[in-house]
Amino acid sequence: MNTLVKIIVTVTLSILSLTLSAQENKSSNLWKIEGDNIKTSYLFGTMHLIPQKDFQLKDKVKSAFEASEQVVLELDMTGPEFMKDMMAHSYLEKGTELKSYMDESEYELLDNFLKEKTGNGMPMYSTMKPFMLMSVIIMASVDEPLASFEMTLMQMAKEANKEIEGLETLASQVAVFDAAPYEKQIDDLVEMISKPEENAEIFNKMAQLYVSEDIEAMYGYMDEYMKGDIVMMEKFLDERNNNWIPEIAKFSKEAPTFYGVGAAHLGGDQGVVNLLREAGYRVTPVMD
């Protein structure tokens, strides 16, 4: 705070500044966004899929939601247009199949896994892009009920007649995955199903970090999970985070807004919290 850098005018200002500084350094999954020319808004870090036993929408989140007039998620998944876009962007080009990007042993491993977990082998999923197949595998790999913050928030918005918008389009999100060679994505899929215990540990660790509301630890663990793949971290997190800042400014100028994005997007120097601060907004954690 400026009062700590410059001459401390009074003891009162000193105490106030120290208090505000300490507050801003705390961590939370929910952040208040304030600034000139915008309506007070809230940024909520979600976990797209979380064990049902760990799912909780705290009172502070409900209050922030009620204080907002519109809801903005990473994607607007409402309406028939989204499903049309999903079909258009989630499948390989006509005449192309996933088996052309893998060897026989990889195909057999994936085929056996899918038969065991879903009852259908690779032919059922042969035209899906790897990121879509990964979604199927993740869902099939978890042996416990799951919950989704996004689905819950969309239902709440519908019941409250709040407008739902998206920070980005499905096409731009899919482009992030398409930037990685399909062969590498297949290798990642094979590694995932080859190490079920390790993946269960990763999933549970992410859930624990989420419940602890430690956004910096979540960001760090995401980096570790991606094995230091700088290019993917930049494309999957950093570039998207930077693209969201003007969108957040636009929506918050219109109305008090409740934002819901993956919690891994909040922490780090290129995280949404820090980028909003660099853009001149005051962003403070909302504590229990």
UniProtKB/TrEMBL annotation:
Entry-linked InterPro entries: TraB/PrgY/GumN_fam, YbaP-like
Transmembrane regions: none
Pfam assignment, any one: TraB_PrgY_gumN
Family annotation (CDD domains): Tiki (cd14789)
Protein name, UniProt field: TraB/GumN family protein
Keywords assigned: Signal
Source species: Gelidibacter gilvus
Superkingdom of the organism of origin: Bacteria
Signal peptide: 1-22
